[in-house]
Design goal:
The chain has about 70 residues and is mainly alpha-helical. It has two helices and no strands. About 45% of the residues lie in helices and about 0% in strands.
């Protein structure tokens, strides 16, 4: 359970080979700016789409440019 008392939900994401290579490079270089860019460019849109397909409400699609400090609410 989460602190809010709700059951956590999980979504599996598939990455393209080039994204896996990019993620490995980001991890090896510890490149925070590139990690933030990859998160908002590749991961958030897929999570939002998956949530919408399942009828789940998600606030990430209303956060232009990564929200306050590049973090999701909650």
């Amino acid at each position: 359970m989460t602190p809010s008392g709700r059951q956590p939900r999980y979504i599996w994401l598939a990455f393209e080979a080039s994204e896996v290579i990019e993620l490995k490079r980001i991890t090896m270089d510890r490149d925070v700016a590139a990690a933030n860019d990859l998160f908002w460019r590749a991961i958030v849109p897929r999570v939002v789409a998956a949530a919408q397909r399942r009828g789940l409400q998600i606030e990430a699609d209303r956060i232009p440019g990564g929200g306050e400090g590049g973090r999701l609410p909650g």
